[in-house]
Design the sequence.
């Protein structure tokens, strides 16, 4: 069967009420840390998705009123007409490429803290706001409910005026009032908005009907609904009330956008949910209940799975947030039979972390994500070479691979040398750890590209010295030599008082464990002052080998950073389930007489833990020797990039490689003068 026939079902148009999507690729709403604070950046990013073939391109949760103020987060905002021009940038960008633009209107209820507006916080019943904050939302009275309905209706009209084609009512992620009214544990009302499911659904029904009434003649009305809270009988379940909701509202929206809640369940990482399409079991009933089109998600990147989901009648649209972030051109690549060129999402949630840090979105796989406007980067286009210069890249980790690949795409003659027999650097090592197998896609995508380019030469098992580099005679050199983990326990908590290690306990580095050269007997103490994923994964690996593991960290929780990737609670739960002994808020004092001394991070009080081995995960040492040796040796250019320049995430290394390739042969003064375009606050005040 030809590629065209095999996937052609994915390119059929689908109607959403009065509007028609040109194919079945639907970028569902996703946050991006740009929103109302950086509207030009968001518009350009969404425009690229439309250009890449997504027939529907949504924005993200869009506050309808100052009582739903998500400050400090940078989501969408449509409080009044002053917000229309910013959103118009996006709808224009999406329309220009022939796609439909969708807006996810929301009232966040007790999920918003109204820090900017200082407006009352609203909820179906009296209860605490989200997050560890000593504040409460108040139960909405009838007038509040009438107001909310009016705000939603007026926002829908503003959204239509901003050019949106699809307008959402949003009841998902445990973040919205419509859903809060549905859930019995949040809605304890005794009036017609509480009690029976029909009553708890009343508000949603009204919002759907009134949105249709307001804009339904020209816009499709979408309903985003979390069919299952994944709490078993403690929450809404797809096979019980979740299904009943779909039955009760079946034909009311023009489109059902269904998923699971909360966000950490919807956007599961591959570490905890390796299976693509993992939401199918929850959502597959929906199409049996409604005649309206259905969109579903689940980190779907395989075109074959997409076809099977459509032909089996699970969905009408292939929904995607992360797969569209990792590869905005995924639909076009399928249509053009370039399936092996898809940059598959690895499910690491670095994109989520940026939004949660109120920074513009970034992506491990796609270094151009978030840079479309401010740096003018396109995920598929890079400017051609401007000379016949030859380039050497040393190190085939994520930075070196990306740098070499992009330079080769520009047309330069590229030599890539790697000391090891395997490409990938840290990614090769980390992707062999429990749950991180999908991360190998970072290497596979780049190797697949590079090995097909006649102007790129790869030399494996080629550890280069400075003399080797100079002998090669290649004038432009990028060093992506990476890092190694230190094993002396020195890190942010111990810089003032470095731990004393008396040698009585065998000490291992993170790399030793990754290389399978760890302790054979326990107990083994893992000390984590890095706070990323590594120490937690190493603990899991050693515990799975049957060793008795103690996990100590100066932080109050395991793998602290992973709360930003929506995984922390799962990481900690897994270690507890595996019997790992957690010693939290403990700073490494030293190792003496077969015992690790830990000092309380608050009081300094010590306790000792007898163990047979220790793994000390604190900081990495940059591999700069080659760089130092090559300085002043007459090379035309010499650049240290990636982790060797600044140890960080894999996403940072890929970005560094990409930036270096784009910047090659650009005027350094121009780069210095123009880091990137910025969006500055307007001093134009309305109504003043
Ligand atoms: P980054 O994340 O910056 O890409 P990594 O640590 O993942 O860094 O990868 C660095 C790679 O560089 C490793 O695969 C390592 O084997 C390789 N490397 C380091 N020094 C040399 C060298 N002198 N010659 C060739 N390869 C090297
Ligand atoms: Fe996927 Fe990671 Fe990119 Fe997010 S950052 S889209 S999870 S590869």
Sequence:
């Amino acid at each position: 069967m030809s590629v065209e026939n095999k996937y052609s079902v994915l390119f059929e148009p689908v109607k959403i009420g009065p509007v028609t999507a040109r194919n079945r690729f639907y970028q569902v709403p996703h946050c991006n840390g740009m929103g109302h604070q950086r509207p030009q950046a968001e518009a350009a990013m969404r425009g690229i998705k439309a250009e890449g073939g997504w027939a529907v391109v949504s924005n993200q949760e869009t506050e309808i009123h100052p009582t739903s103020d998500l400050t400090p987060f940078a989501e969408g905002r449509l409080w009044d007409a002053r917000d229309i021009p910013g959103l118009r940038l996006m709808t224009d960008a999406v329309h220009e490429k022939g796609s439909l633009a969708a807006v996810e209107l929301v009232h966040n209820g007790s999920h918003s803290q109204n820090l900017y507006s200082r407006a009352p916080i609203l909820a179906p019943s009296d209860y605490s706001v989200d997050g560890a904050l000593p504040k409460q939302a108040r139960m909405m009275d009838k007038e509040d409910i009438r107001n909310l309905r009016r705000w939603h209706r007026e926002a829908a009209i503003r959204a239509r005026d901003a050019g949106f084609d699809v307008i959402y009512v949003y009841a998902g992620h445990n973040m919205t009032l419509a859903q809060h009214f549905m859930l019995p544990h949040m809605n304890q009302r005794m009036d017609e908005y509480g009690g029976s499911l029909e009553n708890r659904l009343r508000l949603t029904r009204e919002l759907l009907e009134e949105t249709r009434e307001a804009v339904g003649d020209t816009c499709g009305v979408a309903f985003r609904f979390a069919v299952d809270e994944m709490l078993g009988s403690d929450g809404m379940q797809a096979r019980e009330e979740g299904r009943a909701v779909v039955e009760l509202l079946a034909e009311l929206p023009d489109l059902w956008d269904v998923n699971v809640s909360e966000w950490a369940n919807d956007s599961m990482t591959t570490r905890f949910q390796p299976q693509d399409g993992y939401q199918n079991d929850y959502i597959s009933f929906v199409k049996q209940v409604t005649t309206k089109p259905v969109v579903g998600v689940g980190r779907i990147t395989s075109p074959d799975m997409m076809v099977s989901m459509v032909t089996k009648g699970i969905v009408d649209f292939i929904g995607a947030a992360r797969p569209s972030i990792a590869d905005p051109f995924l639909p076009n690549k399928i249509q053009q039979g370039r399936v092996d060129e898809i940059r598959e999402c690895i499910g690491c949630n670095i994109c989520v972390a940026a939004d949660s840090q109120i920074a513009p979105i970034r992506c491990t796989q796609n270094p151009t994500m978030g840079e479309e406007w401010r740096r003018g980067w396109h995920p598929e286009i890079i400017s051609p070479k401007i000379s016949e210069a030859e380039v050497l890249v040393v190190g085939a980790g994520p930075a070196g691979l990306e740098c070499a690949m992009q330079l080769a795409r520009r047309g330069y003659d590229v030599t890539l040398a790697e000391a090891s027999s395997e490409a990938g650097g840290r990614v090769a090592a980390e992707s062999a750890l429990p749950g991180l197998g999908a991360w190998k896609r970072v290497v596979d995508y780049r190797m697949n590209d590079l090995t097909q380019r006649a102007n790129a030469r790869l030399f494996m098992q080629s550890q280069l010295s400075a003399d080797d580099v100079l002998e090669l005679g290649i004038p432009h050199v990028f060093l992506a030599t990476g890092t190694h983990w230190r094993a002396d326990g020195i890190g942010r908590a111990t810089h003032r008082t470095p731990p004393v290690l008396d040698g009585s306990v065998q000490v291992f580095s993170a790399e030793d464990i990754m290389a399978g050269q760890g302790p054979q007997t326990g107990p083994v103490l893992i000390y984590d002052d890095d706070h990323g994923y590594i120490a937690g994964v190493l603990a899991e690996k050693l515990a799975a080998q049957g060793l008795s593991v103690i996990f100590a960290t100066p932080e109050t929780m395991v793998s602290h950073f992973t709360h930003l990737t929506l995984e922390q609670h799962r990481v900690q739960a897994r270690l507890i389930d595996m019997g790992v002994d957690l010693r939290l808020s403990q700073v490494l004092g030293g190792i003496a007489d077969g015992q690790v001394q830990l000092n309380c991070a608050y009081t300094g009080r010590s306790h000792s833990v007898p163990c047979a081995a220790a793994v000390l995960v604190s900081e990495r040492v940059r591999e700069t020797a080659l760089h130092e040796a090559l300085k002043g040796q007459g090379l035309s250019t010499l650049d240290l990039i990636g982790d060797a320049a600044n140890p960080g995430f894999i996403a940072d290394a890929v970005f560094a490689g990409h930036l270096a390739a784009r910047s090659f042969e650009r005027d350094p003064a121009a780069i210095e003068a123009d880091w990137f375009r910025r969006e500055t606050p307007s001093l134009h005040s309305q109504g003043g």
Remarks:
- Residues 142-161 form the longest helix (20 residues).
- The chain is about 30% helix and 20% strand.
- The chain has three domains: 3-356, 390-482+623-673, 486-620.
- The mean pLDDT is 96.
